[in-house]
Amino acid sequence: MISVKRDDITREDAEVIVNAANAGLRGGGGVDGAIHRAAGPSVMEECRQIGHCATGCAVITQAGKLKAKRIIHTVGPVWKGGTHGEPQLLRDAYRSSFLLAKRHGLRSIAFPAISTGVYGYPKKEAAAIALAAGREFEKDFDEIRYVCFSDEDLEIYQGTLNSKAGAGAGQ
Ligand code: APR
User: Of all atoms in ligand 1, which is nearest to the CA of residue 76?
Assistant: First the structure.
């Protein structure tokens, strides 16, 4: 099942939540900062030991004080106008996260809108990629949740989910 909601992802009770990290796994602002603040220092320590995650890839850690069991840290692309492989890299970030969750036997997963904050990816295009990736992996999970941080994001996700784009874009 695919669902969209407006919330703070740090409060999610999905088995795994996904973080929009940077390649150095150093933490930052946005959802990354919020997740590390809520999870506590043990997660940052684990990230330090892992050390790096390339754009489009994903790594997994424990979830510290969060309700979730695990955190997947993925790195989306920085938007540079769309001609630098950004759509493929964003798809890769979602797919890598799904594959890692699947490999760890995790059955419910919650995503923020990766790359659409500091990294500047246009929100509608990013939502289409996020939801199309979800369709690909729907059968492997009990629930795939997209957690929007604003009403505007929620409207974009709901609109995309209910449109043809949500069912098939990017495939
Ligand atoms: N819950 C859910 N979504 C959130 C939360 C939260 N608590 N906080 C922010 N967001 C949303 C933002 O509104 C945006 O839609 O997450 C989306 C992604 O924004 P960013 O966190 O800025 O992530 P991104 O654009 O991928 O940039 C990653 O920012 O924080 C740094 O370390 C991070 O360098 C990396 C970069």
Answer: 26
Of 146, 168, 152, residue with least CA distance to 18: 146
Measured over the CA atoms of residue 68, residue 150, residue 84 and residue 130, the dihedral's sign is positive
Task: Order across the sheet with 2-6: list the strands.
Answer: 2-6, 143-148, 108-111, 16-20, 70-74, 58-62
CATH 3.40.50.150 corresponds to the domain 2-168: no
3-state secondary structure of 30: helix
Q: What digits encode the pLDDT tens for the residues 73-97?
A: 999 999 999 999 999 999 999 999 9
Q: Cα(32) to centroid of ligand 1, in Å?
A: 6
- Boundaries of every domain in the chain: 2-168
* Span from the CA of 11 to the centroid of ligand 1 (angstroms): 15
CA distance 30 to 132: 24
Active site residue 151: no
Task: Tell me the pLDDT tens digit for each residue of 20-43.
Answer: 999 999 999 999 999 999 999 999
